[in-house]
Amino acid sequence: MVAFRSCRCPHCFNFITLSIILILIFFPERVTGSVPVNPHVCVIGAGISGATAAFFLSRSSSPSITVFEKQSTVGGRVQVLRLPDTPPIEAGASIIAEENALMKYFVNQFNLTRHQKSFGTMGLWNGSKFVFRTHATKARTMFSLLRRYKLSVPATEKYVHKLLKEYKKLYPKNGVQSKWTPYASVQSLLERADGLFNLTQVSFDSVAKNVFSEQYLKEMVAAITRVNYGQDIYQMNGMSGAVALAGSGQDLWAVQGGNYQVVEKLLDASHTNLNLGVEIEHIAKVDNAYELHSGKKKWMCDAVILATPVELTSMGLPSHIAKKAEANRKFQLTVATFIRGSLNKATFGKDPPAAVLTTDLVDDSFTSVGIVHKSENEKNPIFKVFSRKNLTASDIDRIFEGDAEVLASFPWMAYPQFAPPEHFAGFDLDEHGIFIYTSPSSQRVLLWK
């Protein structure tokens, strides 16, 4: 029922690209009256959002596309950890849900290969002991789930099924490759489905307490929101909490060799002018166009897509645009630390599970820890630890045995700190010229994990 995803939210992949596509659908029609026939479109950010923007824009019109990325590689949070004699390990957006029609389309489009991995059992940790553990067989795990959580188990399946039924209404009926309906905002998009927008306006616990038992909510559901978002059930809005549950099952997969390949393939297929290591510092409006500045360099663009959270940049925007963007959300820091070692038996017992998820309000140094790679040729497996701050030496000593080796650490600002009722800026910030993706506050969990 619940799988440890090595990096968070399989569904957030879906919603980010979905929002970008809906911008692009009406982009050509909105600008043809004021810009050249073949406009120069600038995309700021070469993560999954920017790459998807470039891909669909190149297919729906005839623009010249320039993509800017301040890092030296594309992908954003879709990155891998590379170690000697070890397959690439997903360091950021790691897992994709089966319901993610966009990612399935991309993988098929580029002849990439899907694969599924599981490294064993999972336990729910309350700070001092395991309150629940899965087993080697599905039948035994289901028996234990029903014995402890009773009707909350089938209630979850029913709840998720209803959510996904509504969520599928956001896709074109004839598939993602067909014509999409344009929307001006996340709100208008979500209102297409019954109840989805309303879920963003209320707290998740206020909804969930009417569906699940208190024990199930504080143990299983809390563990899911903490591993997905690094936040507790009381902090979540109803939408983000619901889609976290939708992405907590076993039907999850990744791209063989690394999910980052999807981003690379999208950009390659778009025939973009890619500028790596270039941070756009300022955008100025010049007549009906936009001037982008980075150091002493500048570029003129007929339209701009901001495919990166404005809050996480120091980019200067014209005042009227900055006001519309309302870039005042705080983001949740999630540190992904990769450690080769074995779990501390003094802390977790003689036979700890392969993955440890923490329950409601556990004040420990980590929110989850789980195996992401193991080999018969190596004494110890590699774990990924999620935490809300950098791990100290004493933190690592509590989690692992003394021979643990820290391999790498990635501080991700992956999700906003939720605060329902959520507010969403429109996609179009400046009369058809600057567009923004605004999805995280609703459910950035609708894409990856």
TrEMBL record:
Keywords: FAD, Flavoprotein, Glycoprotein, Lyase, Membrane, Oxidoreductase, Signal, Transmembrane, Transmembrane helix. The chain crosses the membrane at residues 12-31. The keyword Ribonucleoprotein does not apply. Residues 138-435 form the Prenylcysteine lyase domain. Its cofactor is FAD. Pfam families: NAD_binding_8, Prenylcys_lyase. GO terms for molecular function: lyase activity; prenylcysteine oxidase activity. The keyword Iron does not apply. One of its GO terms (biological process) is prenylated protein catabolic process. SUPFAM superfamilies: FAD/NAD(P)-binding domain. Belongs to the prenylcysteine oxidase family. This is Farnesylcysteine lyase. It comes from Gracilariopsis chorda.
